[in-house]
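hey m, so remember when u said the tokens were messed up on ur end? i reran from scratch. heres the input so u can diff it against urs
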Amino acid sequence: MLTDRYKRSSDLPKRIPVFPLRGALLLPRATLPLNIFEPRYLAMIDEVIAGHRVLGMIQPVGNSGPESPDGTDCNVRSVGCAGRLTAFQELEDGRVLITLAGITRFNIVSEESSPAPYRSFQVSYENFAEDLVPGSGENEVDRDVLHRVLKTYLDTNRLTADWRAIGNAPTELLVNALCVISPFGAEEKQALLEAPSLKARADVLVALTEMELAGGSDDGPLQ
């Protein structure tokens, strides 16, 4: 993977442009497609493409307000995830479709003063060294439980899945990809992001899914 070039935190830029987006989740070696249309974020993508191709995804604090608040007066979470821009498509209507591949989580250190219309931060990756080790913690995840809960969820929502592909997927990719596409809200997504290990993240994912099944929520399927 393109993200495998980042072996240590020093391989990553300490200052990165950051995209605050409520409900969006990026995790190491998972991918996140984004539809970029606001002028401030089109300018951000121009910088990313011209530079190190790394940007950060982070959630605004709180559960209300715009999905992506304008200005610097909106607080953001203390933990986000850096991703590498791996795909770019410019559309006739001015929108840009991109794909980010997750590299590692980061802590916010401070916000950079800049005339740019988007926000940039000094960040630290030091607390998330294991994120840079592909497959770290895979052996501790109970895949049988994960498969069981996923099958129950899909059956409940009358959905199908390619079980051969699921069975062949590396455990880290399976857990993180399911978290990224999960239908949960901002607080739940942040809990998945901040889980201290892959096993802890899988346990949180299973617990949230079981709660959704028990509550009969119609928030939407894993899609």
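this time it looks ok to me. Helices lie at 39-50, 143-156, 163-168, 171-181, 186-194, 198-215. if urs says something different then somethings off w ur setup not the seq
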